[in-house]
């Protein structure tokens, strides 16, 4: 489910009512823990966080006009999804998250390569996501991105 919203506020306001508070809290958690240098915006029909061209002029290799994407979240059909490219690209970070998750949730972790799916808003481990957000600076992400993805 992609959105045509042009701002995070519009995106949240257009989400199903039973998810709005969780989406607001997720956004607040991210913004309170986001390392300096990332920018918030809309991308790929969801709320996203990227490295702006002022910091990384090359942009995203698939579309250099696009700032380097890093993480995002969305209200999908059956879940609220949180996407974090650092987990996809850094096995140590992935292992840390998988190990820590049971300390913050009694639910089974529903996770793809970079995507964590939370079927119910109450299932989101906001504190753990805040810790995850703090772990990667824009420079860390650029270094990892260039090593892992950029050919």
Describe the 3D structure.
This protein is of the alpha+beta class and 151 residues long. Helices cover 42% and strands 19% of the residues. The protein is built from six helices and five strands, in the order H-H-E-E-E-E-H-H-E-H-H. The N and C termini lie far apart (30 Å). The mean pLDDT is 94.
Low-pLDDT windows of residues: none
> The biggest beta sheet, please?
5 strands, antiparallel
Summed over residues and divided by their number, the pLDDT gives a mean of: 94
- Which geometry do the CA atoms define? globular
> What structural class do you assign from the helix and strand content?
alpha+beta
Euclidean distance between termini CA atoms: 30 Å
The percentage helix is 40-55%
* Tally of helical segments: 6
Total beta strands: 5
Radius of gyration, in Å, reads 15 Å
Order of secondary-structure elements: HHEEEEHHEHH
Neighbour order of strands in the largest sheet = 1-2-3-4-5
How big a fraction of the residues is strand? Answer: 15-25%
């Amino acid at each position: 489910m992609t959105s045509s919203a042009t701002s995070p506020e519009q995106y949240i306001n257009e989400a199903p009512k039973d998810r709005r508070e969780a989406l607001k809290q997720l956004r607040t958690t991210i913004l309170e823990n986001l390392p300096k240098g990332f920018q918030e915006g809309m991308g790929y029909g969801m709320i996203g966080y990227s490295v702006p061209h002022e910091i990384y002029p090359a942009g995203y290799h698939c579309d250099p006009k696009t700032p380097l994407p890093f993480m995002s979240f969305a209200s999908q059909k059956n879940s609220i999804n949180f996407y974090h490219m650092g987990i996809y690209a850094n096995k140590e970070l992935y292992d840390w998250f998988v190990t820590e998750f049971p300390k913050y949730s009694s639910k089974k972790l529903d996770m793809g390569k970079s995507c964590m799916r939370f079927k119910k808003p109450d299932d989101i481990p906001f504190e753990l996501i805040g810790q995850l957000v703090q772990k990667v600076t824009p420079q860390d992400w650029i270094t990892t991105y260039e090593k892992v993805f950029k050919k």
